[in-house]
C-alpha cells in the first residue's frame, strides 16, 4: 500500500508537469472505485488552473483555481495499489488506467489502480471541514509531531506501541513498513504497551520516525509490488529496509534471526535482541 513517502514522491514527481496548467479534458473510464467517481468531475475541473500541489497524510491535494469562481481542491487517495503517472496525449491507456486529467500542454495525469481501492473526489471550501481530513493527527515531519505528544497520548494505553504509532489520530502517514523500521531503529519491541514506554524512549522513537520517513522520501519511496513514482520510476528505499519483509533473516546489528509476529492483524518483524 502506498504510504506517506510514496504519496510525497508522487506529489513531487507530477507537480512540474501540471502546476500552472489549465485542465482541458477529463476522461473517466471506470467510475467504480472505492467510492464512485463523481458524475460532475469533468464539469468541476475543466477550465480550472492547477495550483501548488499539497499532501495531507496519504491524501494528495490538488488546488483548482478559476478567476471569479470558488476555489476547489481535487482530493486523491491511491488506495492499496494506485499510482498517478504522467503520460502524453496519444499514449494509449493500459488496463486499469481509470481516470485521465489532461492539461493544456498535452500532459496527462493518469490514474492506474488494479484493485480500485483508491478514489478521487473534489472539495469545495475549507479542507478542514471535510470529515476525511478533520480528525487527522500531525504530519510526522512537521514541528507539531513531538515525543511529548507521543508520551502524553500513550499514557494509560494498553495497546501495543506499533498499532498506536500507526493510528492516524496520533500521527499521520506512519504505515506498516515505516512503523516497523522506526521501532527497530529506536530499539523498541513492537509488542510493548504504548503506556509503558518512557518519555526518553519516545524521544528516540520520534527521531526514528522522522529519520526513516525522510530517508524513504529521498530514495523515492519503497517499491514492494505496485508502487512507482509520478514519472514511472520505482522507489529504492526497499534496498535499505532493516527488518520489514526480512523475517527469518539475520539482524543487521546482532546477527540474530528476525522474528515474524502479527499485531493488529498486520505482519510485524522485529529483533528480540535489539528491540526490548
TrEMBL record:
Known EC number: 3.2.2.23, 4.2.99.18
Amino-acid positions noted as binding DNA in the UniProt annotation, renumbered to this chain: 96, 115, 157
Cofactor binding, note field: Binds 1 zinc ion per subunit.
InterPro entries documented for this protein: DNA_glyclase_Znf_dom_DNA_BS, FPG_cat, FPG_Glyclase, FPG_N, H2TH_FPG, Ribosomal_uS13-like_H2TH, Znf_DNA_glyclase/AP_lyase, Znf_FPG/IleRS
Active-site residues, record numbering mapped to chain: 2 (schiff-base intermediate with dna), 3 (proton donor), 58 (proton donor), 266 (proton donor)
UniProt GO molecular function: 8-oxo-7,8-dihydroguanine DNA N-glycosylase activity; class I DNA-(apurinic or apyrimidinic site) endonuclease activity; damaged DNA binding; zinc ion binding
Keywords assigned: DNA damage, DNA repair, DNA-binding, Glycosidase, Hydrolase, Lyase, Metal-binding, Multifunctional enzyme, Zinc, Zinc-finger
Cofactor: Zn(2+)
Residue intervals of the Formamidopyrimidine-DNA glycosylase catalytic domain: 2-118
Catalytic reaction annotation: Hydrolysis of DNA containing ring-opened 7-methylguanine residues, releasing 2,6-diamino-4-hydroxy-5-(N-methyl)formamidopyrimidine; 2'-deoxyribonucleotide-(2'-deoxyribose 5'-phosphate)-2'-deoxyribonucleotide-DNA = a 3'-end 2'-deoxyribonucleotide-(2,3-dehydro-2,3-deoxyribose 5'-phosphate)-DNA + a 5'-end 5'-phospho-2'-deoxyribonucleoside-DNA + H(+)
PROSITE patterns, A to Z: FPG_CAT (PS51068), ZF_FPG_1 (PS01242), ZF_FPG_2 (PS51066)
SUPFAM superfamilies reported for this sequence: Glucocorticoid receptor-like (DNA-binding domain), N-terminal domain of MutM-like DNA repair proteins, S13-like H2TH domain
Domain FPG-type: residue ranges: 242-276
Single GO BP term: base-excision repair
Family statement: Belongs to the FPG family.
This protein's name: Formamidopyrimidine-DNA glycosylase
Gene from which the chain derives: mutM
Amino acid at each position: 500500500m502506498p504510504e506517506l513517502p510514496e504519496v510525497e514522491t508522487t506529489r513531487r514527481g507530477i507537480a512540474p508537469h501540471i502546476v500552472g496548467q489549465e485542465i482541458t479534458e477529463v476522461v473517466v473510464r471506470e467510475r467504480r472505485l472505492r467510492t464512485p467517481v463523481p458524475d460532475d468531475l469533468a464539469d468541476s475541473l475543466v477550465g480550472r488552473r492547477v495550483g501548488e500541489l499539497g499532501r495531507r497524510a496519504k491524501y494528495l491535494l490538488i488546488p483548482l483555481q478559476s478567476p471569479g469562481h470558488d476555489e476547489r481542491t481535487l482530493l486523491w487517495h491511491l488506495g492499496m495499489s494506485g499510482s498517478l503517472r504522467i503520460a502524453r496525449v496519444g499514449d494509449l491507456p493500459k488496463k486499469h488506467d481509470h481516470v485521465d486529467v489532461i492539461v493544456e500542454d498535452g500532459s496527462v495525469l493518469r490514474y492506474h489502480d488494479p484493485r480500485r481501492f483508491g478514489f478521487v473526489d473534489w472539495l469545495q471550501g475549507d479542507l478542514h471541514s471535510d470529515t476525511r481530513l478533520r480528525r487527522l493527527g500531525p504530519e510526522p515531519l512537521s514541528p507539531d509531531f513531538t515525543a511529548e505528544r507521543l508520551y502524553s497520548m500513550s499514557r494509560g494505553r494498553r495497546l501495543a506501541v506499533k498499532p498506536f504509532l500507526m493510528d492516524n489520530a496520533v500521527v499521520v502517514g506512519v504505515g506498516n513498513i515505516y512503523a516497523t523500521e522506526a521501532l527497530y531503529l529506536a530499539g523498541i519491541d513492537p509488542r510493548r504497551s504504548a503506556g509503558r514506554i518512557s518519555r526518553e524512549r519516545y524521544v528516540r522513537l520520534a527521531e526514528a520516525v522522522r529519520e526513516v520517513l525522510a530517508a524513504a522520501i529521498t530514495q523515492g519511496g519503497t517499491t514492494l509490488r505496485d508502487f512507482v513514482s509520478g514519472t514511472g520510476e520505482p522507489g529504492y528505499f526497499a534496498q535499505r529496509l532493516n527488518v520489514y519483509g526480512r523475517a527469518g533473516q539475520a539482524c543487521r546489528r546482532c546477527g540474530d534471526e528476525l522474528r515474524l509476529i502479527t499485531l493488529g492483524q498486520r505482519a510485524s518483524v522485529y529483533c528480540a535482541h535489539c528491540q526490548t
